[in-house]
Amino acid sequence: MWNDHQSLNLLANILLTGVLLAMIYAVGIRVLALPFFSLREVRVEAVDKSQTNNIRLAHITRDQIEQVIHNSVNGNFIMIDLKILQKAFMELPWVRSVKISRDWPPALDILLEEHKPLASWGEAALVNTNGEIFHAIMDNARLPVFTGPDKSNHLITRQYHIFNKLLQPTGYTVTEIALTPRHAWHVRLNTGTWLKLGRKQMEQRLKRYVAVHTQYNENLDWYGNSTYVDLRYANGFAVRIH
């Protein structure tokens, strides 16, 4: 081997490259340790994709933000692992999305989007305005209640808006929607009345209910006392009064 000049040159080049890389690494570590690369500022901003004006965080507290940063930010501005920090923020119950970027001079820009609660999902969770289920605690909130099979949350959310729009002429609103395992719809109004819409033609049936209510409102005082309206009939509906 010692007489093989090509092998010796190759070995010398490998050793030289290793020494150079070690020197670059050592210098780089010392340079990154300089105060010039120390994180100086963390800027947190609330965002709402449906609005363009500035908003404030309603449920994510300053203490929670500071705790996440304290536990997840290690090293200087360059060495911070943004994926770890993002994951830590996503573990907060009210965080729907987070975007983190580096800025200069050394700072972090954190954009937080909160869940906007629309309804309760049974007794165990909440549904946001995008129809997504999330787990958080909301005290003293009177929200509509949704219940249904797994993965039906987006469908129920869409129908909730449709039903409320159709009910506008009556002045009633939906306070509860129950979708059965067989996909039959039951809707409770703010009067306490339950509407049984069935599995098909729900909107047409609800329109018929609204039309009758609007036309004969003055003569339908018993509507306020009704507890159950079955709208599955072809040409009418049945009312049960308590």
TrEMBL record:
One of its GO terms (cellular component) is cell division site. GO terms for biological process: cell septum assembly; FtsZ-dependent cytokinesis. Residues 37-115 form the POTRA domain. Pfam families: FtsQ_DivIB_C, POTRA_1. It is a single-pass type II membrane protein. It is found in: Cell inner membrane; Membrane. Keywords: Cell cycle, Cell division, Cell inner membrane, Cell membrane, Membrane, Transmembrane, Transmembrane helix. Its main location: membrane. The chain crosses the membrane at residues 12-33. InterPro entries: Cell_div_FtsQ/DivIB_C, FtsQ, FtsQ_C_sf, POTRA, POTRA_FtsQ_type. Part of a complex composed of FtsB, FtsL and FtsQ. Essential cell division protein. May link together the upstream cell division proteins, which are predominantly cytoplasmic, with the downstream cell division proteins, which are predominantly periplasmic. May control correct divisome assembly. Belongs to the FtsQ/DivIB family. FtsQ subfamily. This is Cell division protein FtsQ.
